[in-house]
Amino acid sequence: MRTMRKVAIIGVGITPFRARYLDKTYFELAYDATKLALEDANKNGAEINHNNLESTVYGIYNELFERQFMPDIFINSYIGMNNKPGTRIASGGATGGYTVRMAYSEVASGLSDLCLCLGVEKCNDCYDEQTGVTTPEVLNAIAYSADMTYEYPMGMMAASSYVSMVNAHYEEFGNPTEEQMAYVSVKNHGNAMLNPKSQAPMKVSVENVLNSRIICFPFKLLDCCLYSEASAALILANEEKVKELGVENPIWITGVGAANTDCFIGNREDMGRLYSNIYAAKAAYKMANLDYNNIKSQIDLAELHDAFSGQEVISYEELGFVPFGEGGPWIEKTFEKPGEGPWLNGELPCCPSGGLIGCGHAVGATGIMSTGEAALQLRGDAGKHQVSINKGRAISHSIGGPGAAYAAIIVMANEEGLKKP
Amino acid sequence: MSEEFKDHQIRDVIKINYKYTMGGQSKFFIELKNNKKLLGTKCKKCGKTWMPPRINCSDCYEPADWLELKQTGTIEVSTIVWYTTSAFIKAIPYGIGFIKLDGAETALLQGIFSENLVPSKIKKGKRVKAVFNKQRDGKMTDFFFVPEDEYDNWISKPEYEGGV
C-alpha cells in the first residue's frame, strides 16, 4: 500500500542550548546548526556541503520571539539555500517533531533526495520593561498561542494549560504526586550533567524541587523547563542517496505519527489525557511495525517532551510504556534502582539528553534536537550520556500548542534495529 | 576575528491595533454585555451543547441554535497561577479553571475568584456561580466565577453584581 521511499538521518547538528546568545541572531544560530549537521554527515561518510542540499523544511514556532514574520526566508538567504524550495512549519512546542515529519515526507515522497530539517528559536530577545527581565515577556509571546477570545484574557499561559491536564490526571488516578513529578526533575537535570550542550545541568534532590518557588499549582520552578535559545538540524537522505554517498551509519526513520487533539481542553472527553499523544504514538508504532502494548521492550530509549515534569509522567502512559494511571508509580518505585524505570540505566531511559527540563526548550529546535539526540544514541555517538543500545530502536516525542493539542512522534532504527523483530 | 566580541542590543516593539469582529459568536458577547446572560449553542442534529458557543456543530456539520445556560456550574479542574506573563503578572496569584455550566457538555475556562484562594477551595467538584462586572465591555473579562458560598459577598461589592 505504501509507496514511500526509505529515509535516513545522515547528519545531526545541535548547537549548545543556552539562556541567551548575545553574539548570535536567530539566522546565525540556524547557520551554526546547519554547518554542524553537514560536518557530522561528513564524519558519517557523506562528502556533501550545503550546495548538495535540495530543500529545507524549517521549524520555527514564534515570530514574536524572532522579531520577524516569515523568519524562514531570512534563514534561507543566510544559509545559502536561495533558489531551492523551503517550507516553514509552526506547530507550537511540537514544531520540531512536525518539522521532522514534513522533512521525512519531502524525501519519502521523492520530492528531494537530500533535505535539510532545520529548527531554531531565540526567545530571550523578548524583554519585560516593568520587571527588568525577559521571562514574563517570553511567556506573553507564547501566551498569544492561547485562544485570543476566550482563553488568553483569563491569564492562560503554557504552565496553566499543561497543569490543567496534570491536575485532571491526578484527580482521576491519584498521581502524579508532587514527589513523583519531582523525580522527573531529578532525573532530567541529572542526565543533563552528562550532556555538554545542556542549559540546566544540575544535581537536585526531591526536596530541592519541592522547595523551589511555586509557579502554577502544583508545578514548582524545578518542575518546569527553561526557555532556551538554540538551533538543531538533521540531514535526511533517501536509500539510494545513502548508498551513493557511502553513509556509514544511517539512522532510518521507520515511523512518523502525528495528531492534533482539541485545543480547547474543556471540549475533551477526559481532561487528564492527551489524546493526540495516544493517536500519534499508535500511528508511529504501526508504521514502524511496533506494538503499542509492548513498546517498552521494543525500543532502547525515548526522548520525551518534558516541558513540565508532570507531563512526562502522563506521557509514559499515553505512549504505551505503562498502563493508564501507573506513570507516577513507575518512576517512583524505581527511584535510583539501576535497571528499572525511566532512569538513565533503567529498562527504558527517558530523556537521556536531559530533555527540555535539563537540556532546554528552544521551541522550534527542540523536537529536532530530541530526534537528533535519539539518532546519535542509535549510532553510539551520544557521548557521556550514551545508553546501552540492544534493540536498535528509539523514539522522539514532541507536543505543544494550546492544551498541548499538537503531538508528533518519530520512530528511528539503526541497521540492526531494522532487522530485529 | 580575533578581537573581543561586544554585543549591541536595541529596544523595539511590535504593536498592532484591531477592531476584531466576533462574527457568528457576536450574540454571546452582546447578551453578556447587555443582559448578563451566558449563551451556549445546541446542535440542531445531535443536540450537543457547546460552551464556548459555536454556531456550527464541529461534530456533525450542522447549524447550532442559541441556548441560554444556567449561571451555576461545577469546577472540572483548576490551578492557582503564581508566576505568569507580563500582561498578567500584576494580578498574581489568580485562580483559573475549567467550569462545566449546568446543562453544558463542554467546560469553559474562566477566572475563579475567592476570598480564600487555596487549592482546596477551588478544586474539582466545587460548585461555582457567575459574578458580573457592573461596567461591561462585551468581553470574557466581564464575568468570573466564585464559590457558591461566597456569592452574596461578591455581589455586594460596589463594582460587581449578580446575573439574571
Report on this structure.
The complex is a heterodimer of chains A (421) and B (164). Chain A is an alpha/beta fold. Chain A has a domain at 7-126 and 227-245: Thiolase/Chalcone synthase (Peroxisomal Thiolase, Chain A, domain 1, 3-Layer(aba) Sandwich). In chain A, 36% of the residues lie in helices and 17% in strands. In chain A, strands 3-2-4-7-1-8-11-10-9 form a nine-stranded mixed sheet, sandwiched between helices. A two-stranded antiparallel sheet of chain A has the order 5-6. In chain A, strand 10 (393-400) and strand 11 form a beta hairpin. In chain A, helix 4 (95-108) packs across helix 14, helix 7 crosses helix 11 and helix 7 packs across helix 12. Chain A is globular. The two termini of chain A are 21 Å apart. Chain B has 164 residues and is mainly beta. Chain B has two helices and nine strands; from the N terminus they run αββββββββαβ. In chain B, a hairpin with a 6-residue loop joins strand 5 and strand 6.
Summarize this structure as a short list of keywords or feature phrases.
heterodimer, A: 421 residues, alpha/beta, Peroxisomal Thiolase, Chain A, domain 1, nine-stranded mixed sheet, two-stranded antiparallel ribbon, 11 strands, 17% strand, globular, B: 164 residues, mainly beta, six-stranded antiparallel sheet, three-stranded antiparallel sheet, 2 helices, 9% helix
Low-confidence stretches of chain A: none
The oligomeric state is heterodimer
Distance between the termini of chain B: 72 Å
Number of DSSP strands of chain A? Answer: 11
Radius of gyration of chain B: 20 Å
Query: Would you report the number of β strands of chain B?
Result: 9
Helix content of chain A: 25-40%
**Overall body shape of chain A:** globular
Number of domains of chain B: 1
**Main sheet specs of chain A:** 9 strands, mixed
In N-to-C order, the SSE pattern of chain A is: EHEHHEHEHHHHEEEHEHEHHHHEEH
N-to-C SSE string of chain B, H for helix and E for strand: HEEEEEEEEHE
